[in-house]
Design brief:
single chain, 269 residues, alpha/beta, 3-stranded mixed beta sheet, 9 strands, 19% strand
Amino acid sequence: MRRAIAEIDAAEAPLGLDELATRMGMSPAHFQRIFSAWVGVSPKRYQQYLTLDHARRLLADRHTTLETALQSGLSGTGRLHDLFLRWEAMSPGDFAAGGAGLDIRWGRLQTPFGEALVMATEKGICGIAFLAETGFEAAWQDMTSRWPAARYLEDPDTVLPLARPVFAGKGETRLHMLGAPFQIKVWEALLQIPSGHVATYSDIARSIGSDRAVRAVGTAVGRNPVSFLIPCHRAIRKSGGLGGYHWGLPVKRAMLAWESARADTGPHD
């Protein structure tokens, strides 16, 4: 289905069901059934969510201001649909040490948005990078440069059980955020944006009490190490433009479209 989304996203005009099914090597009926079961809507309907002005419609119809949501703050746990998330932040001193003394385990996982590199400490997931646009080597260098003093161990049997609930949207997982204090504040604010909604960078700056720090907020959003779970893809420009995305704009567009489809139709197992 990630390959189907890539075909849809690259097309200059909407693709018919027969054409999509042929490209996927499936019968039209089989492709329609699998695509609808995964996304929650038909391929035709999904393509409407991927149009260029979709972000602008989100901004008009589902623009979430964060002040109300943040009044309750985070108490260490958050509810994301049916996913129960346990959150713990690294101390500033540990962050400054570059991950010294940490064992970070990693594995590769197929997700609705292509293959992902997932990293975790003993306390929980600390990194999710998407490989469709960057490739593995670039993503690996990016992630390991954030905590250069850590020891990295390939261990999918430990990491992947933590990551699978993230993309299934149900179950329980743990999160260990490794970042500077200002970054942590921004990432906490991102967690408050509901799925299927968006917020502007200035909304986020205002919600954390730093109205004038829009550029710094944008930088912190871009440095989020746990993509999708900490939903930096829900941050867009005031104009409705998507802005940038660390792992590629096609991935961001696919995430927003997928979440919008599920928000409009309800969750699908």
